[in-house]
Amino acid sequence: MEILRSTCNRLFLFMEKQLNVIFGNQNNPLYHLGTLSFFFFWVILFSGIYLFIPFETSVARAYQSVEYMTHQQWWLAGIMRSLHRYASDAVVITIFLHLVREFSRDRYRGVRWFSWFTGIPTLWLVVLLGISGYWLVWDMLAQYVALGTAELVDWLPVIPSSMILNFLDGQVSDRFFTLMAFLHLLGIPVALVFMTWTHVSRISHVKVMPPRVLAIGSMVALLALSLLKPAVSHEAADLTKAPMTLHIDWFYLNIYPFIDRFGPAMGWAFSAGVTLLFMLFPWLPPRKEAPPAQVVLPDCTGCGGCARDCPFGAASMQPRSDGRRNTLFESVIDPSLCTACGICLGACTTANPFRRSGETLNVGIDMPGYTLDHMRQETDRALQSLSGERSLLIFGCQRGADLDKLRAADTAVVRLPCAGMLHPSFLDYVLRKGAKGVVVTGCREGDCYFRLGNWLVEERLAGTREPHMKKNVDRERILVVWAGAGDDALLHGKVEAFRQEKLS
Fold this sequence. Notes:
The protein has helices at residues 2-23, 33-52, 59-72, 74-104, 113-137, 140-155, 174-200, 212-228, 255-262, 264-279, 305-309, 343-347, 372-385, 425-432, 453-462, 488-502, and strands at 294-295, 315-319, 329-333, 365-366, 392-397, 411-416, 437-442, 478-482. The protein is α/β, with parallel strands linked by helices. Strand 7, helix 15 and strand 8 (478-482) form a beta-alpha-beta unit.
């Protein structure tokens, strides 16, 4: 499993690096696969609403109404049909890439198992939604899909009646067809909304729209594809004839050629086996997490910073339980949601390193695996090792670029679980203790392993988010570089340029 994951990760890192050159870090589509999926869902929704207006949910009129939209009103309804089709294909691509990328980054195990576990059924609902949509066209492809689906359903011993009976007399009743329309227009979409909400319920600051440039570009690409290759139907369905030539949409209908070849039993076995295997991934093998954050109640001021900034909703504010009267609330940590990123520590107003030397640093919330006191000790040791007129101390994320290559007499390194763990006062502390400059680095911009680390660091340093940098700190001596794994040369170049330009 580790070989597969590392191989996928190297491939994604290579593709991301190339796309960063084209789109820039902020608009790299591989950093926004989740929000792109939401965007394509919006396109599907609005185009589907328009298509429903002229569509007739009867067997006799369904095909004709779709043909009218495709050819007679091609300039709007026809484009809407193509948008509906291609956005549906695009959402399968983005969801699948999102799934593989999260696997490659190892962001699916431990406390993150829930999002992965609920994401697999969500993908299946998307596929079912697409399959039911092909039925409504009621052309030869729809007939092929309907008969294949009936064969699959009838194989299940738990279904008392035979679905294939709806097709044996050479026609399909309007009642049965309306049921299929209901599933596509309401039943499956409602289930999909519920599963999507469940999928993201354990994370905070959920975004449902990609960057504007990426959204506009995606829409332009869909429109161009719709104009260059409009979606069209096969011949009208005729249950007295067998389809001869079909153009399969492999994103949604790949199971049907499989059951043609191997039968419904193998179709179910393959689908169920793959689904079960993917859902068990978080435990193949399970990952041992670092100890979760712990609230030190006597030192908790109830500021709410940890609850505000936690990327996974592990911290929450509840009424004070110790009788303290100068604050009404206290922080409470849910261990089942905590990823031990330390972002809550960076958000705590009490996480200040400026105390007497040798005094243990007590803080309102702390990380047992990497305490604030340990962070200051590491920082002090790094400062003591520095020499030279342009000395630098680098605070770097453990999952970012390789910092060991930068270690030198005038360059020391302190590694953190996440750059978001860094309280802004540490930068002031380092500069006052003798370092000529300080560098903060971590995962690539927009691709923080813990989702929000990059963004939180930048907002705190910009003074738009508490706790913020003091105004008297010399920001010219601070460099922020987002450089992920494989960006060693980029980081080295930025650091050396900063040393020459700002510290000389």
